[in-house]
Write the structure tokens for this entry.
Amino acid sequence: MSASTSPLPFPPIAALAIAALVGLFLGLLLTSQAIPEPVLLNGLDREANTRLAYDFFNRQTGQSLPRSLTLRVLQLDQVTLATLRQHRPEANLQRLVAQYHLPVVIDYVVWLRPNGSLAAQVGLSNSGELISYLNGDIPVSTAELPAADVAIARARAFLDSSTSLGLFWLGPPQVEHVPGQPETEVRWQQPLPELPELTRVVLVRLRGETVWYFQHRLQPTTSGWARPFDSKIIYLLLGLPIQTILLITAAVYLLKTSRRHVILWRVPTVAAVVVGIAWFFVLAPSLPYSIGPALFENPVADSAPDRLARVQSTQFVLGTLGGYVISSLATLLLGMAVVWVVCAALLHIEYDTQRPRTEVFRAILLLRRVPYTTSLQRGLIGGGVGWFLLGLTGLVHWLLADLFPVAGNVNDNLRLLLDAWSPGLLMVGTLVGNTFDLGLVMVAFAWVVLVDWLRRPRWLSLGIIALLGSVGWRDSLTPVLPSALEQPWLFLHQAVLALVLVATLERFGLWATLCAVWVYQATSLAIVAATLPMLGLSPWVPTLLVGLPFAATALAWRPPESERDRQPIPLDHFLEEQRHARQLALATQIQMSFLPPEPPRLDGWDIAALSVPAREVGGDFYDFFLGPDGKLGIFAGDVSGKSVSGAVFTAVALTAFRSEAEENELGCAAMLTRLNELLYPDMKRVRMFVAAVYAQLDLATGSFTVANAGFPVVGRWHYASRERPYVELLDVRGLPLGSLRRATYDEYQGGQLYIEGQEFLVLASDGIIEALNEYGSPYGYEALRDLIDDFMEQKADQQSAHDLCTAIISDVRRHMGEAEQADDMTVVVVRRGNPHAQQSRPATTQRTAAQRTARETAKTRLTG
């Protein structure tokens, strides 16, 4: 970040390190002490309750449980809690619940049939007492209903054998036949002695003389009771407009810059996919909690016959499941859409303003390595900020814990963790979602919109961010700590957290901000897991997740190679690199599409060619043409241009060669002269040239002629007058094609050339000779000579032309070592004899319909 941007104040790194360590210590110490003990869940053992439920069902029915889906749902009797807090606010809830055996915490074990209907359920208290029982498999009796005394006796026997309810508490029962149902209901109903606002109700229903339904509940004594207001609605009403405003703002900006949408879609897409996976991790394990209220919430008349019949129906459960799936899918898609649009808009604003903030973030999402010397340091700085926020949060909650004591502390978020199929997946999804929502959406995007796009004053922007943070903050401590609605001072605390993140973003970029949120939230989860083992979440999971962003940063970092690598890369430079990479891929595709699918297969001859493109495409090519006179034309070259331009002129040169070879029977020198005339106008305009060589081989006699236009290696391996064969580099020279309008070329003047016996002709591009190793030394002509001599000395009659091409490329790569390949490497070998090796040689490339179409198109454009 340049000095002209006037970054927000931020402490020195040494001060931040000290604050991080102090924050970590305070966070671990004070946060764990500030978490109130969930007294209503003391003694709750869900595994033991599950075993009790199975045993009770087996004893009661004498049969095994139905093969079906099993849910475990924890419910709190909101009626009882609201009444107790209203009429006895000073009471010890744990003592009242234990003293009067109040059914406040109910741990349900539920069995659903394969068709989705409710098969059975058993509800137990946190002390293991039976609270509820339903067995839908007991058939409706067609016999005459039992007399009242018989029904009471059966009900009393059930209560004596299955519950610890003292019947002297209950008084005389009422017996009545259920209207419209062949069932008998025995009901005990009596107000609590010390709390007459609540009435205890015990229901036993019989089909014939068999108990199929039992419930122990509390209900208001008067009918004027109203359900308490759900505070989650307030957070929904506050958070939804914020998300909507940010989404609309991002969409408006994208519409204004639609001409650049196509270049900035990868990072937003990856971010949206990550958030989508996180939402799946949240929504899938939350199924029991989400459908539990529909099945077991305790309204006043939840034992009404029509309600029981509806709960046991297939349509009810499947409808509940279907509704949850549809709402979950909508939530997931909406979350992905928000992140995609916001991330894309953020990148476009950065592109327009030239203020780099997202370099490391982009690189990590795209699995790129960033040449940024401070990338790892910035991740560590973000972690330090996260621990500082943790210490600040622990201190605030510790101070507020004595000022605003919260009795019971069992809220819906804690129930969500207890009911989840996999608390670990749920917490991981929550961690990822909170990181993107807070760091990317609420802080980074909102700040960039206010400061960089709308150009609002910084004091006003900070105030808006503080307001957004105070009402939109999502915290991993929410399940176990009071909300801001219960302790209003927390609104100010959340605003301060948001402002600290803004300062981190402005000074160190988006990745440091996300690291701060991640470390703060993950460490908070570790504290919660260690403090409340009843959640069933290992504290090691979030502890290990704390180091995830640092590991990602280390993997994405590479040592700087120049002074430029020590500075942030603006987004426009990054996009230019992306465009260049796409051009290279296109150039390689064009270049390879014009190469022959395989060398010609000719009796008595072994021909091979191998081309290895470099990252910087240089435009190497080769081609073969068999003329009507029985001569084989061999054309190879190297275009001086790079990327797409080099590949295009490769296509132009090859097309011109094929056109002239098919229409005119030209010698080697005449062919190069004609090609120079055709290529010069275009080459001059783009200041490029083509180094090429053309040889004509008489397949019957083995004689050949050759003309050269600046191609580096034209050699033959032959015996001559020496005792042993050797590599002779032919002294045939000429200017590259397109370098001079009236350039002329001569064929080799050193005498008649032949390929006899096991001799061969070899052509190699400058990518072979000029290949550099890590010390800057080229491969050179002598190394090529020595390799060919050594290779042919080892069973020359068993070595194919393709084997020699492969050996040359391998030896050049050995010479290069760790150095990067800077130019294409191309080798063409024409050898006499050894037809067996020629037939067994694998093809180096495969022609496709797309390649043939591309060649015909280029030829049409050239001739047109």
